[in-house]
Write a structure and sequence with these properties.
Blueprint: H1 4-10, H2 16-23, E1 30-32, E2 38-40, E3 53-59, H3 69-82, E4 87-91, H4 96-100, E5 108-109, E6 112-115, H5 117-121, H6 127-147, E7 163-165, E8 175-177, E9 188-190, E10 192-194, H7 199-206, H8 210-219, E11 221-224, E12 230-232, H9 239-246, E13 253-257, E14 262-265, H10 280-289, E15 292-296, H11 301-316, E16 322-327, H12 329-335, H13 348-366, E17 372-377, H14 384-395, E18 401-404, H15 406-409, H16 415-426, H17 442-453, E19 458-461, H18 463-474, E20 482-485, E21 505-514, E22 519-524, E23 543-544, E24 550-551
Parallel strand pairs: 3-15, 3-16, 4-14, 4-15, 7-10, 16-17, 17-18, 19-21, 20-22
Antiparallel strand pairs: 1-2, 2-13, 5-6, 6-13, 8-9, 11-12, 13-14, 21-22, 23-24
Helix pairs in contact: 3-16, 6-7, 6-9, 8-9, 12-13, 13-14
Length: about 550
């Protein structure tokens, strides 16, 4: 059986101008980055028509066995196009951290891939580098302001703006900066986050246009004065220069699937520590260009989908038409208690036990008023009885479960899924509404997500968290949605608690105000905003062979 890499290299790519023309993008809007990728100036697109239907692809809680959400998104878009429905993908860009850490590449798999895969997985068009530069420029200007007299009376103990790097590096989680004497400034404790957790990343993905981007950058709160008044990026006069660094990055990137269909890749916040969705600009462009726009949200539906609905859709006024929940036999076996080493053995009972995780996600998504279809991402070794167990669990919720073979067959292998998605999206079942109202107090928003989505008995915030939320509400931030930072592996804050736990307590140890992005981050349990590398990082197997080709990126 050929590998993902071998399949990707076997398919000749079309010139990016052809892909743009197929999508209906005028030549004036296309800014090529080589032969097979381009920036799109959305200001040059034709006048808006009735937007296409928005389809969200999400998944059960991830496991080391794999679910294939991105692969399924690509296969679904290819299938919809194959059936004659003009469809545009809108996906996130991969982060270097996971590429060199645990996951490897993130451009799909088999015959359901976006390309050129090496470019996309590595530096691509430089968006992440621009975000890093803008973020760290603000950090430098903060310390520079303090060094040259601190006219704003910033309390250096309460500077909250950290630095970022797009790499898993646990040694940078907590650092002391400005050591070395008077010439280097005033020493203080700080740290690094991974770029995908940066508020600048979130702002890029939630901004509607350049004016909105710069306004949001100016609203970033970087710390407090000694009298506990907030200080913003605009106060230190950094917002204009940050916007300049991000001007090109704000334009979505156009690439193609292996079947020559258009895909807009833009932005890449993680869903466990950020809001987990691609950019509003790319999603709107996909809806403007296609009859259907297929997008995805990171990790399981308890994280990415909830934030897609409660943050992205709320802020951008988007109304999804249907949701696909991806599941695999292998992942449900793990949720049913089977070790990864034993997944090859048939175990219908374990699939049935693990299907409680799928059922929980179905219930949650339907709670937002949206119709659902389950996509069973087929793996070699799946057997009929195990597949029937998934079908039975979905049917118990009144939902279809469709077996998909897009990895092996491309769009043709997801044709039945595409038919079901189109029928749901074109029907009248959708009655979308977010989980909570803007006016609900911040602590109650956190509690609502924990009790209704995670099925927790309650939350356990520290006294400092409660006091901080009260201060932010008094300062006028109480209307913001909440962004839960939590392990992706479980409905609880305990990554080892698989399946569909309920009645647990969600500890909230810290909250962060992302005033520019427009949400409050609640950090739960032991989740880190700077991941570490595993014992054997994927980077150890990545190299360039004698022919000049990159190996090991998948």
């Amino acid at each position: 059986m050929p590998t993902d890499l071998e399949i990707a290299r076997s398919v000749p790519l079309r010139p990016i101008a052809d892909i743009a023309a197929r999508a209906g993008i005028p030549e004036a809007a296309v800014e090529p980055y080589g032969r097979h990728k381009a920036k799109i100036d959305t200001g040059q697109l034709a006048a808006p028509r009735a937007p296409g239907k928005l389809i969200l692809v999400t998944a059960i809680n991830p496991t080391p066995a794999g679910e294939g959400k991105t692969t399924t998104s690509i296969g679904l878009a290819d299938a919809l196009n194959l059936l004659g429905h003009k469809t545009v993908l809108a996906l996130r860009e991969p982060s270097l951290g996971p590429c060199f850490g645990t996951k490897g590449g993130a451009t799909g798999g088999g015959r359901a891939q976006v390309a050129p895969m090496a470019d996309i997985n590595l530096h691509f068009t430089g968006d992440f580098h621009a975000i890093i530069a803008a973020h760290n420029l603000l950090a430098a200007m903060i310390d520079n302001h303090v060094y040259w007299g601190n006219a704003l009376d910033l309390d250096v103990r309460r500077i909250s703006w950290r630095r970022v790097v797009d790499m898993n590096d646990r040694a940078l989680r907590d650092v002391t900066v400005a050591l070395g004497g008077v010439a280097n400034g005033f020493p203080r404790s700080s740290g690094f986050d991974i770029t995908v957790a940066s508020e600048v990343m979130a702002i890029l993905c939630l901004a509607g246009d350049m004016a909105d981007l710069q306004a949001r950058l100016g609203r970033i709160i970087i710390g407090e004065t000694r009298s506990r008044q907030p200080v913003t990026a605009r106060d230190v006069k950094a917002d204009g220069a940050m916007a300049v660094l991000l001007a090109e990055a704000l334009k979505p990137n156009l690439v193609q699937t292996l079947e020559g269909n258009p895909a807009l890749l833009h932005g890449g916040p993680f869903a466990n520590i950020a809001h987990g969705c691609n950019s509003v600009i790319a999603t709107r462009a996909a809806m403007a260009l296609g009859d259907y726009a297929v997008t995805e949200a990171g990790f399981g539906a308890d994280l990415g989908a909830e934030k897609f609905f409660d943050i992205k859709c709320r802020q951008a006024g988007l109304v999804p038409s249907a949701v696909v929940i991806v599941a695999t036999v292998r992942a449900l076996k793990m949720n049913g208690g089977v070790a990864k080493a034993d997944l090859a053995a048939e175990d219908v009972a374990a699939v049935a036990r693990g299907a409680a995780n799928l059922v929980r996600h179905i219930e949650n998504v339907r709670g937002f008023g949206l119709p659902v279809v389950v996509a069973i991402n087929h793996f070699a070794g799946d057997n009929a009885d195990e597949l029937a167990a998934i079908d039975h669990a979905a049917a118990g919720q009144g939902v279809r479960a469709v077996l998909c073979r897009h990895w092996a067959e491309g769009g043709r292998g997801a044709a039945e899924l595409a038919e079901q998605v189109a029928a749901l999206a074109d029907g009248d079942e959708a009655d979308f509404s977010p989980l909570y109202a803007d006016a609900l107090p911040l602590l109650d928003k956190i509690r609502t997500v924990a009790t209704r989505i995670y099925r927790a008995a309650d939350i356990a915030p520290t006294p400092a968290v409660v006091a901080q939320l009260a201060r932010w509400e008094a300062a006028g931030f109480g209307h913001l949605p909440v962004c839960m930072a939590k392990t992706q592996y479980s409905f609880s804050a305990d990554p080892t608690l698989l399946g569909a736990p309920e009645g647990h307590i969600v500890p909230v140890r810290e909250v962060r105000l992302a005033a520019g992005a427009g949400f409050v981050v609640a950090i739960c349990g032991e989740i880190m905003t700077m991941p570490g590398l595993p014992r054997v990082p994927a980077a150890e197997a990545i190299h360039i062979d004698t022919g000049g080709d990159i190996e090991g990126l998948f």
